[in-house]
Amino acid sequence: MPHHVIAVDQGTTSTRAIIFDAAAQIVGTAQREHEQIFPRAGRVEHDPVEIWTNTQWVIAHVLSEAQLTAADIAAVGVTNQRETAIVWDRRTGQPIHNALVWQDTRTQPRIDRLIAQRGVDAFAETTGLPLATYFSASKIAWILDHVDGAREAAASGDLLFGTPDTWIVWNLTGGVDGGIHITDVTNASRTLLMDLRTLDWSDELLEVWGIPRAMLPEIRSSSEVFGAVRSPGELEGVPIAGILGDQQAATFGQTAFDAGESKNTYGTGNFLLVGTGTDIVRSKAGLITTVAYRLRDAPAHYALEGSIAVTGSLVQWLRDNLGIIRSSEEVEELAASVDDNGGAYFVPAFSGLFAPYWRPEARGALVGMTRYVTKAHIARAALEATAFQSRDVIEAVVADAGRALSELRVDGGMTRNALLMQFQADILGIPVVRPQIVETTALGAAYAAGLAVGVWSGLDELRAHWREDARFEPGMSADERRRRYRQWKKAVGKSIDWVDDDARILMGTTD
């Protein structure tokens, strides 16, 4: 039997393929960025065709780099940016519109009307989610309402919806020539259309949004054999056996399987998940309830999640929009060239504030500016914003759980930034622990796939693979920690209530 698993990690800014061996070690990796499309303020799109092209490219290149063939691969696992909505024609395989990315806020007017009529938590008992542009439902409805003929085509069964996992698996398994149309419970739980208890689409919510059930993929577990690859040819015949949304995949890769176990991923945004086992727990402090994973026919496991929209993408913004760094890696050196933030605080509410505030009308704010502040201070303030936002979410976790965390397990690309990790430990007052493999999103997808085909025997074997790489101990005094956090909360206050009728006209979201 082959003993390698390939994970396809379709993220917000790039697509990667990583091959793991049976010891959960990386033996090959390939990555390609895709274009971020910003038609106007508040709108974020991706080209699904570019994403599929990049998926084929990274698969071919990682196999070549590792000098492996399909005969060496036991299974494929897929993980993906969640909530991003793709609608395509099942007859042609072509998207009818660019993907609407999870950060996109163009549907805010419709969300506002629903909130006014029913309240922000109108469907939280069913879905675990507040009414927000973040989730897929309003994005699907927008595409159906704004693309000529889309509603008629959907009603006749010619259109399919999927988050990127569904789009990739459909294409991997043949596309128009018999591609399977599926998703897993973790991604389905992010659409604002799935009932957490039944793990099926909610007829009530499909009616609210005017979405035909025939558009939606079949909901499956996170770990089972779904079908075999037909394209690209380099992987033909290999079973696809794992699907997890990216943050659930990172949690799985951190082996945080049980109630009370947690992780914080530092990527385009930040996402803290705390497992609640097989119990559906409702937050009273601004977190959302989500499915953590489901293995075959076993009961689903759930989690509370704190979602932060902008962290790593803020560093990209410094690079691409302001040009104060040439590469994302330069931000640490620039930020480390000054001793502190110079009094500047950066609230990156580019798509509003997510957990625990859920304030869609907030917008980015850079406050405390003086002539003393340099680009180095701004870079440091940008990194610190990630740590401050994570503390906001952890405060909510503590409020819900009634007990403090003893340490924070972290993963994702930004955790390579030692300055950020040290500041995170300082501002939390607890140790921050980084594993040897920080690409736990891909690892989690590989674990789910490998479990389904017998590469790994069970969760205990996966736990044995986890290894600590670095531990950052807090060094900041309690008084200084409290002072800086107070300043951060003041800065957050300045970002709230920014979007009004004037701003909506500028953004083109008056509907």
Structural class designation:
alpha+beta
Mean pLDDT, to the nearest integer, reads 92
Strand content: 15-25%
Estimated radius of gyration: 22 Å
In order across it, which strands form the biggest sheet?
A: 17-18-16-15-21-22-23
What does it look like?
This protein is α+β, with helices and mostly antiparallel strands and 511 residues long. The chain has helices spanning 48-66, 108-118, 124-127, 137-146, 150-155, 164-172, 185-188, 203-209, 246-253, 312-322, 330-336, 375-401, 418-428, 440-453, 459-465, 478-495, 501-507; strands spanning 4-10, 14-20, 26-33, 45-46, 73-80, 86-89, 99-100, 159-162, 182-184, 194-195, 200-201, 218-220, 223-228, 239-245, 262-266, 270-277, 288-293, 301-308, 345-347, 365-367, 408-411, 432-435, 468-472. It starts with a strand and ends with a helix.
Give the key terms:
alpha+beta, seven-stranded mixed sheet, 17 helices, 35% helix, 22% strand
Annotate the secondary structure layout:
Layout: E1 4-10, E2 14-20, E3 26-33, E4 45-46, H1 48-66, E5 73-80, E6 86-89, E7 99-100, H2 108-118, H3 124-127, H4 137-146, H5 150-155, E8 159-162, H6 164-172, E9 182-184, H7 185-188, E10 194-195, E11 200-201, H8 203-209, E12 218-220, E13 223-228, E14 239-245, H9 246-253, E15 262-266, E16 270-277, E17 288-293, E18 301-308, H10 312-322, H11 330-336, E19 345-347, E20 365-367, H12 375-401, E21 408-411, H13 418-428, E22 432-435, H14 440-453, H15 459-465, E23 468-472, H16 478-495, H17 501-507
Parallel strand pairs: 1-5, 5-14, 9-12, 15-21, 21-22
Antiparallel strand pairs: 1-2, 2-3, 4-7, 6-8, 10-11, 13-14, 15-16, 16-18, 17-18, 19-20, 22-23
Helix pairs in contact: 1-6, 9-14, 10-12, 11-12, 12-13
